[in-house]
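Appendix B. Chain record.
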Amino acid sequence: MTSTEHLDLREIDACLFDVFGTVLNWHTTVTRQVARLSKGLLLEGSQDAVDFAEEWRAGYYDHVKRVSQGGEGTCNADIMHRQILDDMLTTPRWSHIAEVWGESDREDLTMIWHNLDAYQDTIPGLTELKHHVNILALSNGNFRLLLDLAKNQGVPWDGIFSSEMFGSYKPNKKVYQSAAYHLSLPPHKIAMVAAHRFDLLAAASVGFKTIYVPRPAEDSREVRENMRSKKDGGEVDLVVKDFQELARLIREARQS
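Structure tokens predicted for this chain:
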């Protein structure tokens, strides 16, 4: 049973959620849809399709890291995804696909990121959680991207924070600080919920509570399996198996 000793969940007024990988499953969706749009050049379920999706995502991490540290680059995730895609298609491994993906095809590929599968626990967990705290996205996606994702999957947000609004990307501290400012809350009344260690450590550095939710394609297996709460000598305030467990723990804390 997950222990919340030394963490008073009754103090939390808002839970902010990472979206890509935490709320929605980019890995299965992008892998599947890239293959379906490849005109037979990438087989659905193939390692090539997996590699393409993961390379696209790796380009995202490189871009986000550079910009969050003050480097050059767009803060709009749609533009970023398209730039990474175009760059990938100039490389020897993927250049053969570039020949069949014209402008409209590349626009369709970029739009894959606007309709990602939800994890099984996402909607029921967030729906329950919404009864007890404010739930908002705090994501590196641009606003329209996050709006489409919520609309397409029925994600019941109380609000959406896009890092683009704050002129950078997570894990830049000003993204978390700006969200707290707009919520009119002290940091200790906000919990960051994510499947990424780096996101939670950055949130903790500005005073947020931190809740880790392991997801299969996020972080390394070693990180996922060794993530512990501070009570158990770890780095985060709470580790839960999914959103439904988090909702139950907060409900029980509010009722105690």
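Further analysis of this model is presented in Appendix C.
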